[in-house]
Amino acid sequence: MGNDIDSGKWDCFQAGLRGILIQKGDDAYEDARKLYNGMIDKSPAYIVKCADVADVITTVNFARENKLKLAVRGGGHNGAGLASVDEGMVCDLSDMRSCRVDLKTQTVRAEGGCKWRDVDHVTNAFGMATSSGIVSTTGVAGLTLGGGHGYLARQYGLTIDNLVEADVVLADGKFVTASKTENSDLFWAIRGGGGNFGVVTSFVFQLHPVHTVHAGVTLWPLEKAKEILTWYQDFILKSKTDLYGFFAFMRVPPAPPFPEELYTQNVCGAVWCYTGDFNKVEEVFKPITDTAPVFSHLGSMPFPILQGLFDDLYPSGHQWYWRGDIFKELSEEAIDKFVKHGSEIPTVHSTMHIYPIDGKVNEIGKTATAFSYRDAKFSVVYAGVDPDPKNAAKISTWAKKYWEDLHPHSAGGAYVNFLMNDEHHDRVKATYQENYRRLTQIKEKYDPTNFFSINQNIPPH
Ligand SMILES: Cc1cc2nc3c(=O)[nH]c(=O)nc-3n(C[C@H](O)[C@H](O)[C@H](O)COP(=O)(O)OP(=O)(O)OC[C@H]3O[C@@H](n4cnc5c(N)ncnc54)[C@H](O)[C@@H]3O)c2cc1C
């Protein structure tokens, strides 16, 4: 065990754990250290697979007292690889995945290592869902702490807008609850401020009556991309919030349900999710079918099926390089650039998504939570993805060029969860805008030594 920490301390630490301590050389080490993004290769000295809140407290105290760098792992899905740290210790919550629905309050409590598929599985059984993302394997913790946008955002707000309370282990090992009435400054900060303030051991989310949705994919040829993206912006922003659709440039995967003549073609498309009255499906989708998509695959499905639609396309271990931007509008000049780079999608897994963040997201004030872009309409990700490490440079170059060309048209910051590991700290500041200063003050109060620094870091004031 660690050369400069005496063996008595290690024995005591291990004896106090219900979970498992893994270190370099152990059989379980290689698997345990892997991150979702195969482009990022980190070798922590120790990984603590926490079994419960007590393990998290023990781990935080041990790392702090012994001056070990501590990373916190929820779903391990972060593009920038912030769930691990070279030579330090990982507080890994991935075995803490229990969820419980409370029917009286119409809420769900999800432990800090849950993935969204865990939550959706449990809540769907009761005919409900909360606002999350678009891929079921994404971690609840990282997504929520950054804000969280997905299929239900226009109707029910960001994930943080549905957060009722969170249990947090602070840098000094104290366990607190953050809500509107308890530690309200901390509650404000964790609604967008990332993992800067403590380890969240459980989240309580408000649920909504969403069980079966009418959803799926429509595709158009690249020749129509400018016309369709122009139409999409106008259509989605005018639609009722029970319809959600994100726009994409993509290369058609060579597999069903896509028709063979489209295999490996670069196209533009949209993924839809309608939660409203099913008697109105035809009427609601008519403007979409009127655009004459070259492929349309729409139907009714339980919400968790929609959430899992892309899971097979994006298993753990692919190379990922992404950049993000926030837009208040897509000007004609920006649309031309979106089309130019979108037409040059480099690999079958690479994509560019434009996620609407209007509707309910815009009803909340800019300073009401740490997430600051309440007046924006779209969150964009330029995602270079490929299974083969040999293509790492190709996909990164494409994503960077896309970003460099579009960024001048953007609102300045990004969705914090779409920042990459090679971006300057100014990008974090730009992302929080006027909320940045308050975040540094709350950081000073709850984590004055910046113990939680392996994140999109907000140093203390
Ligand atoms: C395929 C894919 C699809 C995605 N789709 C969406 C989407 O639709 N909507 C969206 O909003 N985002 C989306 N994201 C981005 C996603 O929100 C981030 O990658 C997020 O960081 C994932 O959370 P995680 O728990 O898996 O991350 P991790 O990698 O485990 O952690 C990310 C950060 O959060 C901190 N953290 C993790 N757990 C805790 C905890 N319990 N307490 C305190 N801090 C913690 C970590 O220290 C780290 O800094 C997607 C990402 C991928 C790869």
TrEMBL record:
<dbReference type="GO" id="GO:0016491">
    <property type="term" value="F:oxidoreductase activity"/>
</dbReference>
<dbReference type="Pfam" id="PF08031">
    <property type="entry name" value="BBE"/>
</dbReference>
<dbReference type="InterPro" id="IPR050416">
    <property type="entry name" value="FAD-linked_Oxidoreductase"/>
</dbReference>
<comment type="similarity">
    <text>Belongs to the oxygen-dependent FAD-linked oxidoreductase family.</text>
</comment>
<dbReference type="InterPro" id="IPR006094">
    <property type="entry name" value="Oxid_FAD_bind_N"/>
</dbReference>
<keyword id="KW-0285">Flavoprotein</keyword>
<dbReference type="InterPro" id="IPR016166">
    <property type="entry name" value="FAD-bd_PCMH"/>
</dbReference>
<dbReference type="InterPro" id="IPR016167">
    <property type="entry name" value="FAD-bd_PCMH_sub1"/>
</dbReference>
<dbReference type="InterPro" id="IPR036318">
    <property type="entry name" value="FAD-bd_PCMH-like_sf"/>
</dbReference>
<keyword id="KW-0274">FAD</keyword>
<keyword id="KW-0560">Oxidoreductase</keyword>
<dbReference type="Pfam" id="PF01565">
    <property type="entry name" value="FAD_binding_4"/>
</dbReference>
<dbReference type="InterPro" id="IPR012951">
    <property type="entry name" value="BBE"/>
</dbReference>
<dbReference type="InterPro" id="IPR016169">
    <property type="entry name" value="FAD-bd_PCMH_sub2"/>
</dbReference>
<dbReference type="InterPro" id="IPR006093">
    <property type="entry name" value="Oxy_OxRdtase_FAD_BS"/>
</dbReference>
<feature type="domain" description="FAD-binding PCMH-type">
    <location>
        <begin position="39"/>
        <end position="210"/>
    </location>
</feature>
<dbReference type="GO" id="GO:0071949">
    <property type="term" value="F:FAD binding"/>
</dbReference>
<protein>
    <submittedName>
        <fullName>FAD/FMN-containing dehydrogenase</fullName>
    </submittedName>
</protein>
